[in-house]
UniProtKB/TrEMBL annotation:
<dbReference type="InterPro" id="IPR056362">
    <property type="entry name" value="AtuA-like_ferredoxin_dom"/>
</dbReference>
<feature type="region of interest" description="Disordered">
    <location>
        <begin position="455"/>
        <end position="501"/>
    </location>
</feature>
<dbReference type="InterPro" id="IPR010839">
    <property type="entry name" value="AtuA_N"/>
</dbReference>
<dbReference type="Pfam" id="PF07287">
    <property type="entry name" value="AtuA"/>
</dbReference>
<dbReference type="Pfam" id="PF23544">
    <property type="entry name" value="AtuA_ferredoxin"/>
</dbReference>
<feature type="domain" description="AtuA-like ferredoxin-fold">
    <location>
        <begin position="515"/>
        <end position="613"/>
    </location>
</feature>
<protein>
    <submittedName>
        <fullName>DUF1446 domain-containing protein</fullName>
    </submittedName>
</protein>
<feature type="domain" description="Acyclic terpene utilisation N-terminal">
    <location>
        <begin position="5"/>
        <end position="447"/>
    </location>
</feature>
Length: 635
């Protein structure tokens, strides 16, 4: 029988429930427990923690809430643990963990992966005039953290050396899964298809319950949100794997839930650039092989680039935000007028005190479909939540803003109530600056049992052209306005109904009907810095050409014109029968640099589900594929 390795992911972010690791350890039958705690924002938070206390700078929950209560069971079941909980201080994380092991009375070997922290190289990069890889901007004067996205081979080396627990700093998220697979199956640096498959497995698992039915478009199909099953991958040496979850837990593992996770936060699916491999996931295939069991195959790969992506975070002033409720007739109009008045009053008083005006401001009337822009259809709702956010270089200036919010309760709109959280305290704005650095200049090492092991990096010839880093692409299929308009005005070609799109299309003279995209597609959205990502997947192959025809990059850019400041890219995803969209400069700066209520684009796919799509009118007739679609809901 072919040997399989069972890997469970117990955390998709810092703040995930500790019930995940406990569930997997006690009921998952796993060989490896992996946990992903880091994001760009998290790195800057951890850097601030370390600056205040030298023994901090790591995800403390991993030690106190996960390993302390589970250490004995992990040791008894010989489960090995891999995590990036080390943040910006993996040595401190190790020391705290070893102290817990002593208290509990277990003897587990802990390894630390180092090399990602490049804070000591900042001035050298500045002298080299390193530029931001997307915008071309110069390196900022003040830096909070600088970390390279390392790959999986240092993790594999730590496991080879006998480590029971491997703690890393910044590695690419999927590396915490790929590392154990390299160790278990002996995959080498030149086995690109296998490295791509292992990376895909890591990508599928890394966000925890997102692949087991969490944040799924068809949410009514998912039961048991109160006890969601965390994901397990049963991995084989040929790179294939089956996604599942512990028996008896809530959630759902289907081809659709897995597909939505695969498209999450990916750019060009033919060229997803990772530290160990340039992955091609465009031909990935999903097969339902049992209840809550999906087999994943078809990943391909090519040589990696000769550079690491480096994420630098830096402070850029302060922000403050407040929310309040406004009820009654014309609630949305009253809310907007209230916001404008608060901003005008506070800015006038700021200037009187010698400050400049706001560097940025945001008004969102939640409940009036603000996030839908010109596509809003909420009408005259009678209850909204007003959110005001501002940014300024001076923390003291924003104290004026905080002070001048509450007077609105007696001087502005009737029905104003429910101020949330009292006076808002200014918070630092942290921005992301990404650049490329040669791998040859960034050595990685592993420390285990007092021994230090240097880990080499396999790089291609220096001819490799620049890339856009993790999840980026060197060459993207850009659609021009001329192409967009030509596609939008022409009916789908017969070829789309055959080789390219699957299914049949109506002749040009057949009547058409308009339905919202959700009738024929599902999807998920996320972020890469200031780039919004939306993956759209056809519910049936015959729908694909009609989705292609409607969702041109030009049309999507118009639909999201209230958000997008850059270009829109569309990538074909034939294996999953869908598309991937990148909305450049679409998140208002992204992360905590954004003043939006949805700074990470989590709602973008849901907003796009109401995108109007023309389909053959007879599809809505009795016996047609959309006969159950409520025609009253059509756009």
């Amino acid at each position: 029988m072919t040997r399989t390795v069972r890997i469970g992911c117990g955390a998709g972010f810092w703040g995930d429930t500790p019930e995940g690791p406990a569930q997997l350890v006690r009921a998952g039958g796993i060989d490896y427990l992996v946990m992903d705690y880091l994001a760009e924002i998290t790195m800057s938070i951890l850097a601030r923690m370390k600056a205040k206390r030298a023994d901090l700078g790591y995800a403390t929950d991993f030690v106190t809430m996960v390993m302390k209560p589970l250490a004995r069971e992990i040791a008894d079941k010989r489960i090995r643990v891999v995590t990036n909980a080390g943040g910006v201080n993996p040595d401190a994380c190790r020391d705290a963990l070893l102290a817990v092991f002593r208290d509990v009375g277990v003897d587990l070997k802990v390894a630390v992966v180092r090399g990602d922290d490049l804070s000591g190289q900042v001035e050298r990069y500045r002298e080299q005039d390193v530029r931001e890889m997307f915008s071309g901007a110069a390196m900022p004067a003040n830096v909070a953290s600088v970390n390279a996205y390392l790959g999986a081979f240092p993790i594999a080396a730590a496991l080879d050396a006998g480590a029971d627990v491997v703690i890393t700093g910044r590695v690419v998220d999927s590396a915490v899964v790929l590392g154990p697979l390299i160790h278990e199956f002996g995959w080498g640096p030149s086995q690109h298809d296998l490295l791509s498959a292992g990376s895909l497995c890591g990508h599928v698992l890394e966000c925890g319950t997102q692949v087991t039915g969490g944040i799924f478009t068809d949410w009514r199909e998912v039961s048991g949100w109160d006890d969601m099953g965390f994901p397990i991958a049963e991995c084989s040496a040929d790179g294939s794997f089956v996604v599942t979850k512990p028996a008896g837990t809530g959630g759902l593992v289907s081809t659709k839930t897995v597909a939505e996770q695969i498209v999450y936060e990916v750019g060009d699916p033919t060229r997803y650039v990772l530290p160990d491999v340039t992955a091609d996931w465009s031909a990935v295939r999903l097969e339902q092989v049992g209840s809550d069991r999906v087999k994943v195959t078809g990943a391909r790969g090519a040589a990696p680039t000769d550079s690491y992506k480096v994420s630098l975070t830096y402070p850029d002033g302060y922000r403050a935000a407040v929310t309040m409720m406004i009820a009654g007739r014309e609630a949305a109009a009253k809310a907007r007028a209230t916001a404008e008045a608060i901003l005008a009053r506070s800015e006038r008083l700021m200037k009187a005190a010698g400050f400049e005006g706001y560097s940025d401001r945001s008004i969102e009337v939640l409940g009036s479909e603000t996030n839908y822009g010109e596509n809003a259809r909420a009408g005259d709702t009678r209850e909204v939540v007003l959110k005001i956010a501002v940014r300024h270089a001076s923390k003291d200036a924003l104290q004026v803003f905080g002070r001048e919010i509450f007077p609105a309760a007696t001087s502005m709109a009737q029905g104003l109530t429910g101020f949330a959280g009292g006076r808002p305290e200014p918070q630092p704005v942290i921005r992301l600056f990404s650049f490329l650095a040669p791998k040859i200049e960034i050595p990685a090492e592993v420390e285990v049992d007092g021994r230090t092991i240097e880990v080499g990096v396999a790089t291609p010839p220096p001819r490799t052209p620049p890339h856009k880093g993790e999840g980026g692409s060197e060459t993207s299929r850009l659609f021009t306005s001329t192409e967009d308009e030509a596609q939008a005005s022409a009916p789908p070609s017969p070829l789309w109904g055959g080789i390219e799109g699957g299914g049949s299309v109506a002749p040009p003279h057949d009547p058409l009907a308009t339905v919202p995209l959700i009738a024929i597609a599902h999807g998920r959205s996320g972020d890469k810095g200031d780039i919004g990502n939306i993956g759209i997947l056809a519910r049936k192959p015959q729908y694909l050409p009609w989705i292609r025809r409607a969702t041109t990059p030009q049309a999507v850019a118009r639909y999201f014109a209230h958000f997008v400041r850059g270009e829109v890219e569309r990538f074909e995803w034939p294996g999953l029968e869908g598309f991937n969209f990148l909305l450049h400069q679409g998140l208002g700066g992204g992360g905590i640099a954004s003043l939006r209520h949805d700074p990470q684009g989590k709602a973008l796919a849901q907003i796009m589900m109401d995108f109007p799509v023309q389909v053959p009118a007879h599809w809505l007739d009795a016996g047609g594929p959309l006969e159950d679609w409520n025609k009253d809901e059509t756009a």
